[in-house]
């Protein structure tokens, strides 16, 4: 295993800064030569790393949805380990897939979408139940209804369907009903976060640097996956939105079928990122569903880096630690492997023999 480059500074992982691309590009070329790194296309066993939503909005203290965990510093510590994992396995990782939570201000989970009789918006972290909407405690903000009832997907039957403020209110009721029937959760109102074009949307600088360095050292490219821009549905999992149709059964969004197919082609799939209780857990859950439809045995090729992910914890408000841990136990029971980034790759169970170094 090659050493970790000298430029990596763990003390800066919790900060935002500009990656010096040209300097790192030259260093990556020299690093590949010195350590005999072959192009990723030559890998006998293909390993991918999914880095879920490792963005400033979730991972930098003081940003909108910093995943502090119970330690208060969780996402920063997770990313120190994630960077070390990437640098320590440059020769083994074939491709890295960073996912990007991607939002605009007016979406169904942001405060401005909803109002009460006093014209007030729900506070961040408010849980909206189906009964809240049915009783009118919270209703769709009429100020946003006009824009959101315009065609969303030109050329589709759903786009041609007539929409007005009443349609949107019916849809909102349908949406919160669907969430509760799914057994997952009630609608959470989140602080404005991961806004497209904003600094919070960007990858954490240290992780961006590691992904860039890997791409040039291995002559590959990051498979960036954006998600979450549809105004009428949440999109925690990178593989599919929470709701994909409207109250009339017309499609409004779709699964990321191409990404699912790409993942199933890899020999090993490694998953890390934020937050363990939300986007990570639901991405894994959806991947498990897709695997079960093909061959349940494929779950054994999935490895979850438990020390590179943490749950949402807001002291005195919410703590999803137990739910996240329960989800990981369920994934492990289904055949996936829960490992640590510091474990030698050779010690990972069920790893293809040709990967062992």
What is the secondary structure topology, with strand pairs?
Blueprint (H helix, E strand, L loop, with lengths): L20 H15 L11 E6 L3 H4 L14 H15 L6 E7 L12 E2 L11 E2 L1 H5 L4 E2 L1 H7 L8 H4 L4 H18 L4 E2 L16 H13 L7 E3 L29 H9 L2 E6 L5 H16 L7 E4 L7 E2 L3 E2 L1 H13 L3 E3 L18
Helix pairs in contact: 1-8, 3-8, 10-11
Under CATH, the homologous superfamily of the largest domain reads Isochorismatase-like
Q: Major beta sheet, specifics?
A: 6 strands, parallel
Shape: globular
Oligomer: single chain
The run of helices and strands is HEHHEEEHEHHHEHEHEHEEEHE
Total number of beta strands: 12
Identify the CATH class of the largest domain.
Alpha Beta
What's the domain count?
Answer: 2
* Beta-strand share of residues: 5-15%
Annotation field: number of helices: 11
Mean of all residue-level pLDDT scores: 93
Structural class: alpha/beta
- Range of helix content: 25-40%
CATH topology of the largest domain: Rossmann fold
Query: How are the strands of the largest sheet arranged?
Result: 7-2-1-8-9-12
Q: How big is the Rg?
A: 21 Å
Unreliable sequence segments: none
C-alpha termini separation: 8 Å
Q: Which features characterize this protein?
A:
357 residues, alpha/beta, Rossmann fold, 2 domains, six-stranded parallel beta sheet, two-stranded antiparallel ribbon, 12 strands
